[in-house]
């Protein structure tokens, strides 16, 4: 549910807001209306500092030292700016050293064929009028007869793709290259020096990587300063800029704690119940189960202050739809194991309860669908005593899972329409929501009456009169009283247009729930195919050698199937909630998330 908010207005002299905001930050309950973009040079500089540290963290986390590298001893600068500068300079030096090693390695390859020679001898020959010309040509280009025409000496012909030779004196041969500026030994020595420097930088970077928590703390501190400044920069000034008025919001259920903290600060404030026009931030107040699914609501957007929290509905139906799409008891057990393993990884620890819950729901639904790794457990003798609880393969002559998917879809849409009617009545009043009531009576009432009649509870004459009454009441709301402040003829025209849209839309909405059946069937059939292929390879099981390919086929096949099924089971239930349910419930995401001013980062 949406937590009620209390609005607080703070009145203080201009220049005192920084101290107040620092105190509110310590309190950790007040959401101050703030700018989300840099508002001036100072905030731009603060934002640049946060982004600078973010970039360092990304680079350090991405750095992978070669195996066997020992981290440099921890230490170095501890102050924030010095530490950041050291990390930046080390990363820059590491990038430059990497390029230097590549260049030195290329130099070694280039000079390898010339070997080690005396540069003084080469210079002395040049001064004596016998210059040396260095050549590198391919084996196809080189002609052995050149040695008879020129003072030619082959230096290296081990690499058949290139032959290196030197010509003394007159020279008109192809492939001449610049004289090497150092010997091969000097090039190798330079490469080793560059490589040693690179290894030292790798050790330093590994040591810095171990100090990433320190950088994370610096980032949090920089973000806190930016958050604090943006909150103050949004203040409205009055009385010729001598008085500042700040607006903030805090949950009403924490009003006592908030007021006690504000009174201790000795600040002048005015509090009042927040209303829609104030555009207060949206905070949810849900139990532990529903809170796991708040991230899904945030993917679409938080509701307006006078709207409703869709998370309780999403929590139930997303879990149910996910289990429908997976539809396999064995796959649910795998998901539960994965969820439990995620607790050990800090990056995924928060998602662990959700994955375990979805896996548990899949186990239950998969058991009712009597499917275990695409095997029909209803045929197992061990489950013969409880065979009656399994979903029948046929309902009214149709596939049981398909019928159940459509029934769940109808119920989901009816529930959405009921929610829409309740919210319309609460926000606009009963008389101003008669059109909504008309559609709810017609569709939800019609579904209920059809179910009762199908169960044989009501006789045919009674059912007929109930349908007539529902039809008349619904038609009055839809065509005559959909807007009491408008001409009745316009109401009729509007009702006809809405009838066309609703009828065509509802049919498509209901049919959309067939995807639950289709995805579950596709996953089951694909898993069954892998099982059959594995059994074909295994044969009668008499050959021990065939067990290994059997296990590999089944294992790899089901791993791939679980991955694809989980992706579809996440996307399509999300779509059914975000489109079908939200559209029929009138949900609109206009709110912003409650983000109190605190010393920590609020994601």
Give the topology, please.
Elements: E1 5-13, H1 17-27, E2 31-32, H2 41-62, H3 80-111, H4 119-127, E3 132-137, H5 146-149, E4 151-156, E5 163-168, E6 176-177, H6 184-209, H7 212-233, E7 236-238, E8 243-251, H8 255-265, E9 268-273, H9 288-291, H10 294-300, H11 311-326, H12 329-342, H13 352-368, E10 371-372, E11 375-376, E12 394-395, E13 398-399, H14 400-428, H15 434-454, H16 460-480, H17 488-512, H18 514-538, H19 547-585
Antiparallel strand pairs: 1-8, 1-9, 2-8, 3-5, 3-6, 4-5, 7-8, 10-11, 12-13
Helix pairs in contact: 1-7, 1-8, 2-3, 2-7, 3-6, 11-13, 11-18, 11-19, 12-13, 14-15, 14-17, 14-18, 14-19, 15-16, 18-19
Helical percentage: 55-70%
Low-confidence stretches: none
Quote the distance from N terminus to C terminus.
20 Å
Kindly state the number of beta strands: 13
Assembly type of the chains comes to single chain
Task: Report Rg.
Answer: 38 Å
Instruction: Using the alpha-carbon principal axes, give the shape.
Output: extended
Mean pLDDT figure:
84
By secondary-structure content and strand pairing, the structural class works out as: alpha+beta
Largest sheet: 5 strands, antiparallel
Count of runs of 4 or more consecutive helical residues: 19
- Give the amount of beta strand, in percent: 5-15%
Number of domains: 5
């Amino acid at each position: 549910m949406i937590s009620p908010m209390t609005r607080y207005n703070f009145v203080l002299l201009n220049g005192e807001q920084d101290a107040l905001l620092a105190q509110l930050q310590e309190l950790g309950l007040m959401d101050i209306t703030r700018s989300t973009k840099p508002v001036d040079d100072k905030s731009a500089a603060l934002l640049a500092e946060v982004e600078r540290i973010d970039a360092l963290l990304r680079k350090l986390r991405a750095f992978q030292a070669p195996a066997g590298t020992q981290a440099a001893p921890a230490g170095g600068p501890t102050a924030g700016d010095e530490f950041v500068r050291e990390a930046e300079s080390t990363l820059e030096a590491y990038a430059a050293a990497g390029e230097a090693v590549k260049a030195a390695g290329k130099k070694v390859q280039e000079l390898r064929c010339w070997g080690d020679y005396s540069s003084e001898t080469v210079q002395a020959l040049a001064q004596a009028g016998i210059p040396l010309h260095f050549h590198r040509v391919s084996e196809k280009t080189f002609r052995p007869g050149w040695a008879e025409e020129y003072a030619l000496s082959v230096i290296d012909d081990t690499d058949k793709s290139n032959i290196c030779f030197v010509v003394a004196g007159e020279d008109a041969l192809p492939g001449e290259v610049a004289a090497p500026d150092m010997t091969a030994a000097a090039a190798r020595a330079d490469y080793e020096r560059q490589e040693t420097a690179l290894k030292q930088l790798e050790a330093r970077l590994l040591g810095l990587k171990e100090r990433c928590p320190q950088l994370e703390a610096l980032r949090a501190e920089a973000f806190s300063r930016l958050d604090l400044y943006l909150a103050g920069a949004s203040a409205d000034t009055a009385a010729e800029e001598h008085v500042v008025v700040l607006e903030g919001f805090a949950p009403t259920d924490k009003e006592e704690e908030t007021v006690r903290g504000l009174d201790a600060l000795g600040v002048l404030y005015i509090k009042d119940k927040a209303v829609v026009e104030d555009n207060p931030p949206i905070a949810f107040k849900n139990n532990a189960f529903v809170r796991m699914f708040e991230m899904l609501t945030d993917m679409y957007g938080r509701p307006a202050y006078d709207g409703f929290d869709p998370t309780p509905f999403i929590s139930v139906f997303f879990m149910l739809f996910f289990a429908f799409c997976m539809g396999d008891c064995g796959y649910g057990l795998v998901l539960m194991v994965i969820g439990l393993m995620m607790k050990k990884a800090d990056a995924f620890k928060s998602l662990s309860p959700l994955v375990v819950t979805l896996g548990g729901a899949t186990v239950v639904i998969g058991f009712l669908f009597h499917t275990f790794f695409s095997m029909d457990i209803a045929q197992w003798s061990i489950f013969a005593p409880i065979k009656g609880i399994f979903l029948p393969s046929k309902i009214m002559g149709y596939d049981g899972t398909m019928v159940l998917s459509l029934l769940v879809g109808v119920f989901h849409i009816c529930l959405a329409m009921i929610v829409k009617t309740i919210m319309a009545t609460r926000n606009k009043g009963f008389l101003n929501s008669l059109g909504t009531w008309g559609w709810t009576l017609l569709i939800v009432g019609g579904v209920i009456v059809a179910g009762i009649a199908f169960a044989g509870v009501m006789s045919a004459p009674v059912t007929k009169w109930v349908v007539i009454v529902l039809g008349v009441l619904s038609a009055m709301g839809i065509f005559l009283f959909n807007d009491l402040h408008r001409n009745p003829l316009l109401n009729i025209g509007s009702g006809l247009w809405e009838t066309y849209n609703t009828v065509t839309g509802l049919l498509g909405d209901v049919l959309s729930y067939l995807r639950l059946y289709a995805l579950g069937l596709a996953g089951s059939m694909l898993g069954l195919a892998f099982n059959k292929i594995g059994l074909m390879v295994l044969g009668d099981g008499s050959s021990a050698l065939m067990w290994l390919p059997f296990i590999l086929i089944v294992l790899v096949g089901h791993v791939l199937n679980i991955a694809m099924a989980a992706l579809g089971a996440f996307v399509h239930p999300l779509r059914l909630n975000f489109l079908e349910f939200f559209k029929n419930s009138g949900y609109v995401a206009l709110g912003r998330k409650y983000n109190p001013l605190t010393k920590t980062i609020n994601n």
